[in-house]
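Input/output pair, single chain:
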Amino acid sequence: MKIEELRRLLKKRNLEAFLFSSPPNVFYLTGFKSTHAYAVVTLKSLYLLTDGRYYEKAKRQLKSWEVILIKENTFKTVRTLLVSQKIRCAGYESDRVSCEFRKKLKGVKWIDFPAFLENLRAIKTAEEIEIIKEGCKKTDEVYKKLLNKINPGMEEREVRTQIVNLIFKTGAEGESFPAIVASGKNSSVPHWETSTDKVKSNAPLLIDMGLLWKGYCTDFTRTIYLGKPTSEFKRIYTVVKDAHLYALEKVKAGNRIGDIDKAARSYISSKGFGKYFTHSTGHGIGIEIHEYPRIHFKDKSAKRRIEEGMVFTVEPGIYIPGKFGVRLENTVAVLKGIGEPLSEIPLDLICL
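Output:
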């Protein structure tokens, strides 16, 4: 189905072939992972070009693709293939290709296309959504087990070590991004880098983590409290939770992407915390941790209609400098026209 959609796109753009060089797009089309591979899709044929490190594996794994060995010169191999197939006009990923690569793409009329698969990848197939669901279930397992391992006095990086160990125990491939573990005032930095700081008692602990399952990412955040939460923390936590739910209500096929962000942002602003919500309400997720669309009312995707099969995060937050921050994040899929959180972990505050 992906290839059929891609070929329709080639015809629409008056292209005879397309060269994909970015590892995420090569994996998206082929299901094959490597650090050096190129996918060439023509109107009739499929080719994967790779070197001797991956050649035999690719031949075994890819039955619908013709696998071609890159012996020495990548550019010559690409040109030889396209000339042999009498390809006169081909596209390439201008946002993923180096200047050197562009200079050496000779012998064919090349047309550059940034983000050529952006719209196609934004709508997940049923198989892709099932994989992401499985990954989110495993992420839930990691989080529930992690709660029993957190104690005041641990270093933030010790908590991350526990996360990594638990991820591998689920059978996943590893982290989808370096987990954020932020205790106390560190949680007021939205993308805090997990440090050697101690996890504090009578303070919040923000945990933002995800795993890689069958090549697809998950993303999940909860903010818990170690001890008895202050009234200020509980108030802000409730605002973030309600903002998350208001945003989720807008995840409906036919609404605009920007509506999701506006719902969360307007509510947080109405409670007096607008200037403390400093990032978008979410982002697309799939093979890469950040994909199109970005969930923000000023983004280029803001006016795009929400469609069946889209998968993105919903993650409003409030960050009070020098005090603490609260973020609550789920991965959400548009199924039967409405947003379905793929995590089963409640948004309710957990105190340890």
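The CA atoms of residues 202 and 228 lie 6 Å apart. The longest strand covers residues 203-209.
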